Amino acid sequence: QAKGEGKARFRIFEPALAERVEARRTLETDMRRALKAGEFELHYQPLVDAHSGRVTAAEALVRWRHPRRGLVSPADFIPLAEETGLIMPLGAWVLRTACTDATRWPNAIKVAVNLSPVQFRDDRLPEAVEDILRETGLPARRLELEITEGVMFDDEERTLMMLSRLKAAGVGLAMDDFGTGYSSLSYLRRFPFDKIKIDRSFVRQLPADAESAAIVRAIITMGSCLGMTTTVEGVETAEQYAFVASEQCSQVQGYHVSRPLPSKDFVAFLVGQKAAA
Ligand code: C2E
Ligand code: MG
Ligand code: MG
Ligand code: MG
């Protein structure tokens, strides 16, 4: 009877699985084509100094301008790019494009680039970063790499070695989506991060929710005690902005300041800010 059941289940699930495999294969082929066709683009979201309100950096966020599907968000293709290894050429393209774009920005505004844990697993990453800085002419201090807690799990010794090599290259290191992983506290002490980016899940219910407020306040205090700056992500309202600024965070990012903008619009945003100041 158990055998019979197994067969029935197999028959029910087989088509769905085959369909899924097929869909992934199609997407993979499509991504390879898109990379060659130049369909990926970077949008930039301003990060402002919490006190002056001035733009001091921008985060590069990749999008896929698909001929039929329109603008595709990274959540819909980064995971598959990571599984297939396509994240390596895509990630290199992102890094090179972001550094090139940033050389054209005024006031030594920094560019923040997200690194996939898969890119981080490649020992040659620090040299690749240095090569791109040399090729594009962007000073290392103007590049910041955003790394999620995910990379910390692999192998602590190796992680420390990789982060130290990147740090020695002169780039900034930010821990992204802080608070969503595990063992965050020991990692902060152990690894040479310059910045903590507080995940937007802690911001959503600010300023009304006392527990969210306590967590954000505690992370900002801890960061500053450990010599790290803090960026609060996902600030969507004036009330949230006022709260996090009053809590002495260093930097604010979120729809309240600006959505991620196509490169051209980001530069226009900078010009507009300057005019307003
Ligand atoms: P992330 O690095 O945490 O980036 C911040 C995400 O939050 C972005 O989503 C941004 O558009 C969104 N966001 C910013 N402000 C607000 C806000 O006020 N409210 C809300 N609801 N959302 C806000 P996006 O662009 O869809 O990117 C999602 C994730 O995809 C990123 O999260 C990052 O993990 C990944 N990603 C994006 N670009 C790259 C890339 O070039 N390489 C890699 N490896 N990952 C990338
Ligand atoms: Mg990020
Ligand atoms: Mg983030
Ligand atoms: Mg995130």
UniProtKB/TrEMBL annotation:
This is Signaling protein. The chain holds residues 510 to 786 of 786 of the full protein. Residues 24-274 form the EAL domain. It comes from Methylorubrum aminovorans.
